Amino acid sequence: MVNTIASTRTRTRTGLRVDAELDTGDYPIGISVGRDELRALPIRPHAQCGTWNYTIEPTHADAAPVPGRDRERERAAAVAMLADSRLTGMTGDELDELTARLASAQAARAEQRRWHQRGGRRRNAPGAGGRRLLSDAAALLITVVYLRQVCSQRVLSELLGVNPNSIGEIIAETRMLLDEHGHHVTPTTGLRFTTAAGLSDFLRDGPAPDPAPNRPLPETLSHPALTGMSRRQLGELVERLAVRQAALVERRRYTQHGGERMPGGRGGIFLQKITDAERVLATVLHRRRLCTRAVLAELFQVSPRTIGNALLDVRPLLEQDGYTPAPAPTRYRTAAALLAAVPQEEGDTTESTH
C-alpha cells in the first residue's frame, strides 16, 4: 500500500499531493500516558469550549517525552517490585514454579488469541508484528497480585504504564488459566493500596500501609433500641432475605454486564463495600426514620449513593416479607449523636415489628 501511494504520487482533484514512506519504528500497543506526563503537556484551551477545543504547543527541549527504552526499564523495575512475597503470598521459588507450570498453557492461549485476531494462519515469521508490553511471567504476576486484592487494576495500570483495558484483558485471560489448573489465590488481609505511589512507597520504604478506618460494629448498630427488634429477630430477618438478596444483586449485575460476568472483570474480586446483612440493617434503621441517608453513609463509611442503592434493593424485599416498621421516638441528625444514644448495657428488648 505504501509503495503504491509513493509510486503514483497520489493527488486529489483539488491539487492535494500525498507522499508516503514506510515508518520502521517500533510502537508497542497498550502504553498508558501517566498523569504527570499528561499534566506536563503544553495544552492551551481555546476560549470557546476549551474542554474540546485546544492547541498543543511544541514542547521544549527540556520537556522531551520519555524514550521508549526508559519506559521499558521503568516497567521492568515495577514488575520486579511486584514480585515481593508480601504482595504475592509466595516465595520466589514458589512463584517461579507456578510460572513454569503455566508457561506452555499461556503460550498456547496467546497463539489461539493471535489466530482469531489474524483470522487464520500466521503470514509473517514468528516474532514479527506488534509485541505485548508484558511477558507471560509478568502477566501471571500482576494477576496474582490483583487476585490477592492488594490493589485495583487502575493502580496496576498506573504503576506499569499500561492501558487499563490491556491490564483487564491480561488479568481475565490469566485468571482463567489459573482456574483451569486448579490454583487458588488467597486474598491478603492486611494490605490495601489505592494509589500506585502508596504501593511503591511501601515496597521501597517498608512501612505498613495506613490501616482502614474502623467503622461502627454491626453489633452496635443492631442494638434493639435502634432496630426495634431483638437481635435474634434481626438475624432471622437477614437469613430469610439472603437468597432473594443474592438473586437481586446477580440479576442487576447481569443486566449491567449484558450477560454473564467475564472473569477478571474490573472490581470483580473485591468484597462489597457493605455486606448484605449490613444492607438490611441500614434499611431497617432508615425505615424506622432513625436517621438520614447521610448519617447512615457516615456510620457504614460508604458513599450516600451506596446507601441509596441498598435502600432501593432491600426495601421491596422487606415489604414482601411483611416487615412493618415502628417509627423510632428520636431522629438523630449526626452519626455521633446516634452512637451516643446506644445504651451501654445491651438489654435484648422484645419489641417486635414483624
**Shape category:** extended
Query: How many runs of DSSP E, i.e. beta strands?
Result: 2
Strand order of the largest sheet: 1-2
Largest sheet: 2 strands, antiparallel
Which parts are unreliable, with pLDDT below 50 for 5 consecutive residues or more?
208-215, 263-267, 346-354
Strand content: under 5%
InterPro entries: Transposase_36 (IPR011518)
Protein name: Putative transposase
Organism: Rhodococcus wratislaviensis NBRC 100605
Pfam families: DDE_Tnp_ISAZ013
Write up what this structure looks like.
With 354 residues, the chain is mostly helical. Among the domains are: 75-121 and 133-205, no CATH class; 218-340, no CATH class. Helices cover 52% and strands 2% of the residues. A two-stranded antiparallel ribbon has the order 1-2. Strand 1 (43-45) and strand 2 form a beta hairpin. Helix 7 (153-160) crosses helix 8 and helix 12 crosses helix 13 (276-287). The protein is extended and about 85 Å long. It starts with a helix and ends in a 14-residue tail after the last helix. Residues 208-215, 263-267 and 346-354 have low confidence and may be disordered.
